[in-house]
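Minutes, project check-in
Item: structure for the 203-residue chain
Input as provided by the requester:
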Amino acid sequence: MFTGIVEELGEVVAVERRGDSARLRLRGPLVTEDAGHGDSIAVNGVCLTVVTTADGEFTADVMAETLDRSALGALVPGSRVNLERPMALGGRLGGHLVQGHVDGTGTITERVPGQHWETVRISLPDGLARYVVDKGSITVDGISLTVVEAGDDWFTVSLIPTTLALTTLGVKKTGDPVNLEVDVLAKYTERLLGHRARTEEPA
C-alpha cells in the first residue's frame, strides 16, 4: 500500500523489450537504499517488484497487462518517473490509500498557470468518471491529488510549486499520457451497494 506522496523523481536508464513484456532499469538512489529482491516500488503509480539493485539503480519486470493498462509502455531512456516505497506500518498517511493498481490512463489536455500554482485538466477514460468527484482524491502518475472539478470525461487538479518541482507533472506537456488510479474506497462502496441491491431484490 502506498500514500501517493512521491519520495523521489527518478529516471529510466534502460528499457529491454521481452516479447509482450519489458524489463525496466531505473535510477532512484533514495528508494533503493533499503530495497532488495522482491520488494515493491511504485513507478508512476504502478506497483512493481524489484528484481535487482545496484549502485542506486533497480530493475523491474513489466508484464503485458500492465503495459496495456498503464502508460509505462511509453517510457524511454531518460524519462523521468515518480518513485515511492510502500508505506511502513505505523507511518503517516500523508496522501490517501493508494494500491499501485492503475485503473487506466488519461491525457493532459490543458495547463493553465496561476500566480503560485498551475491548474491541469486531464481526460478520463470510459468507466472511471463515476468514481471521481469534486474535492475527492485521485492518483495521477502516483501522485495523490485533490480533484478541483470533475466533468463527464475529464477532471482538473491544482498543482502547488512543490508538486511542480518534485514530480513528473512539473515537466509533462499537453498530450502526454498519465496513469490514473481512482479512490479504492469508491470502488468498494459501489460493489457493496450493488451486492446489497441484488440481495434485497424480491424473489
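Outcome recorded: The two ends are 40 Å apart (CA to CA).
No further action items on this chain.
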